[in-house]
Design goal:
This protein has about 350 residues and is α+β, with helices and mostly antiparallel strands. It has helices at about 15-40, 85-90, 145-150, 280-285, 295-325, 330-340; strands at about 50, 70-75, 100, 105, 110, 120-135, 155-160, 170-175, 190, 215-220, 225-230, 250, 255, 265-275. A hairpin with a 2-residue loop joins strand 12 and strand 13 (about 255). The protein starts with 15 loop residues before the first helix and ends with a helix.
Length: about 350
C-alpha cells in the first residue's frame, strides 16, 4: 500500500507593509482602468462632473433619472451640431421628436459661461439660433467696438462667425431657429405653448402678462448659439431678460451669458451616478462652494444604503463563493491528483 506523505510548502513570512503597498497599487490600478474606460467612452477628461446646485431637479426630494445636486454625471464630448434642442425634440414633425434626456425633451449640455473660467453650467438646450442672412461689417472699427458700429445698418455683430468676405466677424441680419417655424426673422418671438412650439411648462402660476409656459419675446440674439435653461428655474433662461421677460440670467465676469457657442461647450450630459458626488461636495471647503446645501435629504439615506451594501457585499458573498469552490468537482479532482503524487 502506498504511504501518503506529508506535503510541505514553502512559507513566505507575512509582511504588513508589503501587503499594504500591494493593496494600494491594486486599488490605484483599478481606479486608473476605470478612469481610462470612462474617458474612452465619453471622450472627455474629466469624464464626470459633480452637480452642485438644484437648478435641474424635478422633485424636491430628488429623483433617479433627473439631475439632482450630489449626482455624478458623465460628460460626452460632442460637437454642437449633434446637440438636440428641446424645440427639435418636442416638434412632432421633426426627425428627433420624442428624444429625451434626464426627464425632459432634448439634451442637457455642460458649458463655460461666456467661454470664461469658473464653475461650468449644466442646463438644458432649449433652442438654437443660427444666421439666415448676413452682411459684411464695418472693418474700420476695433474688434471690441459696440455692435452698432460694426453693423450701422442694424443686425448683431458675431465676432466668431465667418463672413462672405472670408474674414472672421459678420453682421447677422436675420435668424432661423431649427425645429420651429422661425425662419428669416429679424427678431425671435416664440411661444412654447404646444401650438407654435412644443409645450414647456414653467411650473408657475399664470397671472397678469405671465404665462404658464415659456415665451421668447422679441429677442435679438447677440450671436449664434444655444438658449439654455435649468429645468427647475421656472423659465428664467440663462441668457436673461432680453430673451425671456423676467429672467435673471446666469452671470459671468463679463456679464450675462450669451447664446452658448460651440467653443464654450464642454460636453453633453450622459448617464448619471446618483448620490455619489455628495461626498465630494461635503469635503469641498472652497470659497463660494455651496457644499451640500442643495443635496436632497433622500440622497443621504440612499448614499448610506449604497455604501453599506458595498461594504457588506464581500462579507455576504465570501461564504457563498467558498462553498461553491469547495464543492466544485474540479477542486476534488485536483486534490486527488496531488495525493497520488
Amino acid at each position: 500500500m502506498r504511504q501518503r506523505g506529508t506535503r510541505l510548502s514553502s512559507h513566505v513570512p507575512h509582511d504588513p507593509l508589503y501587503s499594504l503597498l500591494r493593496e494600494m497599487v491594486l486599488a490605484a490600478g483599478m481606479i486608473g482602468i476605470l478612469v481610462l474606460g470612462l474617458y474612452a467612452h465619453t471622450g472627455s477628461m474629466p469624464p464626470l462632473v459633480v452637480v452642485e446646485s438644484s437648478s435641474m431637479i424635478h422633485e424636491e426630494n430628488g429623483e433617479v433619472g433627473s439631475i439632482d445636486a450630489g449626482d455624478l454625471v458623465l460628460v460626452h464630448r460632442q460637437p454642437m451640431e449633434t446637440v438636440i434642442t428641446f424645440a427639435e425634440a418636442s416638434n412632432p414633425s421633426h426627425p428627433n421628436f420624442g428624444y429625451e434626456q434626464h426627464g425632459m425633451a432634448g439634451d442637457v449640455i455642460i458649458y463655460d459661461k461666456n467661454g470664461e473660467g469658473g464653475t461650468p453650467i449644466i442646463h438644458r438646450a432649449i433652442l438654437e439660433v443660427v444666421a439666415h442672412t448676413t452682411q459684411t461689417p464695418n472693418r474700420s472699427v476695433a474688434q471690441d467696438a459696440p455692435s452698432n458700429e460694426h453693423c450701422p445698418d442694424g443686425g448683431s455683430f458675431d465676432d466668431a462667425l465667418l463672413d462672405e468676405d472670408g474674414q472672421i466677424g459678420t453682421c447677422i441680419m436675420t435668424w432661423n431657429v431649427p425645429g420651429t417655424n422661425v425662419v428669416n426673422a429679424t427678431t425671435i418671438s416664440l411661444a412654447f405653448d404646444g401650438d407654435e412650439a412644443g409645450y414647456y411648462d414653467c411650473k408657475r402660476l399664470a397671472h397678469a402678462n405671465v404665462e404658464p409656459y415659456l415665451v421668447v419675446w422679441n429677442w435679438t440674439p447677440s450671436q449664434e448659439g444655444m438658449l439654455t435653461l435649468g429645468d427647475n428655474n421656472h423659465c428664467s433662461v440663462d441668457q436673461g431678460s432680453s430673451a425671456v421677460n423676467g429672467s435673471v440670467g446666469v452671470h459671468s465676469a463679463s456679464g450675462v451669458v450669451k447664446p452658448v457657442r460651440d467653443s464654450w461647450l464642454i460636453g453633453v450630459a450622459g448617464g448619471e451616478l446618483p448620490w455619489l458626488g455628495t461626498v465630494k461636495l461635503a469635503l469641498n471647503t472652497a470659497p463660494g462652494s455651496p457644499g451640500t446645501v442643495y443635496v436632497p435629504n433622500s440622497s443621504y439615506l440612499a448614499l448610506f444604503v449604497l455604501v453599506t451594501a458595498v461594504l457588506a457585499a464581500p462579507l455576504v458573498l465570501e461564504p457563498v463563493l467558498r462553498r461553491l469552490v469547495v464543492g466544485a468537482p474540479e477542486l476534488k479532482l485536483a486534490e486527488d491528483e496531488l495525493e497520488e503524487e
